[in-house]
Design brief:
By secondary structure, the chain is an alpha/beta fold. The chain has one domain (3-348): Glycosidases (TIM Barrel, Alpha-Beta Barrel). It contains 13 helices and 12 strands. The protein has helices at residues 2-20, 41-46, 48-57, 69-72, 82-93, 119-136, 165-170, 173-185, 203-221, 243-255, 276-297, 315-318, 340-348, and strands spanning 35-39, 60-63, 97-98, 100-104, 143-148, 151-156, 159-161, 190-195, 228-231, 234-236, 259-268, 303-305. Strands 1, 2, 3, 4, 5, 8, 9, 10, 11 and 12 form a 10-stranded parallel beta sheet that branches. A two-stranded antiparallel ribbon has the order 6-7. Strand 4, helix 6 and strand 5 form a beta-alpha-beta unit. The longest helix is centred in the C-terminal third of the chain and has 22 residues, at 276-297. The protein is globular and about 55 Å long. The structure holds (3S,4R)-3-hydroxy-2-oxopiperidin-4-yl beta-D-xylopyranoside. (3S,4R)-3-hydroxy-2-oxopiperidin-4-yl beta-D-xylopyranoside binds at residues 64-65, 148, 232, 264, 314.
Length: 352
């Protein structure tokens, strides 16, 4: 079943790619900063308009779930690269690059991993996973989210890291180990620590930025290979961006020679007005504030949204609206029409 799906999926994607390239965008001015989107493997195969939109607008793609442990590691001794390989083929056929997401995350872990116990066993499992997965795409994937969401929800004092299998078994050194293993597996790749809720006004956001700075500084002090911080950028429409806080955070990273990128941008519109135009304008405004604050201190190396069209977004899984209208978190609407958010992205990637 899977094998047949794979062949059909690849053929569908490949056949499409051949038709694809002389796209509407051929005449659009090039971007200075690459723009990309997270991609769902099933929609990639099933929806030609989705493929067209990705090929038209994106220089980068990243699998939304296809490289997480619960997909790649059905069991301790198996690696399943069906989803990653499928998206990479689509990317390469259309002149795009694929980012990797993610090597270490507390979530999306298959059940069998709960039997990993003790420092040695954990180190061995982490090493095997990172070496194999990064090795699979060596030289073809230019950037990896090595660590995703390492910071505690509400960091206080010495409790600034989020509990996970690796922290429990290896202590905080798991972070350094992960970066070192990834660099060993592909020395040329951009290695990223990726985090959410670090952009807005408020004590908790500030504490989370400071905790993340602490992790990065610690890695730098130990000469560990970390190259960039990823702002996930799952913005909440009702929260104001802490422009000064973001700029000074990015400046501190720059002083350590650590870049930034935006990895999972979208705006959660649960509490925004029903009126679509008003809603879209608030969304565009929040993203403008974030991208301006980052760019004031350092140019992001890439900007990716967590999906490209409101047709395929994770937002309604957690943030459905009380008025029953569909969420509008992304740069294209459900019919692939451009929304104000896409114009903001065009501006900050310098496509004018
Ligand atoms: C989400 C996906 O979008 C969902 O489809 C999936 O069910 C759960 O994960 N932060 C991340 C992403 O780093 O990996 C998450 O993606 C969204 C929040």
């Amino acid at each position: 079943m899977r094998r047949r799906d794979f062949v059909q999926g690849s053929l569908a994607v490949a056949a499409h790619a051949a038709l694809q390239m002389p796209a509407a965008n051929a005449a659009a001015p090039p971007r200075q900063i690459p723009y990309g989107s997270a991609v769902r493997g099933d929609a990639l195969v099933d929806d030609p308009a989705y493929r067209t939109a990705l090929a038209d607008y994106c220089q980068l793609v990243v699998p939304e779930g296809g490289l997480k442990w619960d997909t790649v590691r059905p069991s301790e001794d198996r690696f399943d690269f069906y989803e990653g390989d499928k998206l990479l083929a689509f990317a390469e056929q259309n002149g795009m690059k694929m980012r990797g997401h993610t090597l270490i995350w507390y979530a999306a872990m298959p059940d069998w991993t709960s039997s990993i116990r003790g420092g040695k066993a954990a180190e061995k499992a982490l090493t095997k996973h990172i070496r194999t997965v990064v090795g699979q795409y060596k030289g073809r994937v230019p950037s990896w989210d090595v660590i995703n969401e390492a910071i505690a929800e509400d960091p206080r004092g010495s409790d600034y890291l989020r509990p996970n299998l690796w922290l429990e078994n290896m202590g905080k050194g798991y972070i350094e180990s992960a970066f070192r293993q990834a660099a060993e597996a592909d020395p040329k790749v951009q290695l990223v620590i990726n985090e959410y809720d670090i952009e807005c006004v408020g004590e908790q956001f500030k504490n989370r930025r400071n905790a993340l700075l602490r992790v990065v500084r610690d890695l730098r002090d130990r000469d560990a290979p970390i190259h960039a911080v990823g702002f996930q950028g799952h913005l909440k429409g009702e929260h104001e961006i802490d422009k000064e806080g973001v700029s000074s955070f990015v400046a501190e990273l720059k002083a350590m020679n650590v870049d930034v990128l935006v990895t999972e941008l979208d705006v959660i519109d649960k509490f925004l007005p029903s009126d679509e135009k008003q809603r879209d304008d608030v969304i565009a405004g929040r993203v403008t504030d974030l991208l301006q604050a980052i760019s004031d201190a350092n140019r992001p190396t890439a900007i990716l949204t967590w999906g490209i069209s409101d047709r395929y977004t994770w937002v309604p899984m957690y943030f459905t609206r009380d008025d029953g209208s569909p969420n509008r978190p992304l740069p294209l609407d459900r019919d692939y029409k451009v929304k104000p958010l896409m114009k903001v992205i065009d501006r900050f990637t310098a496509r004018v």
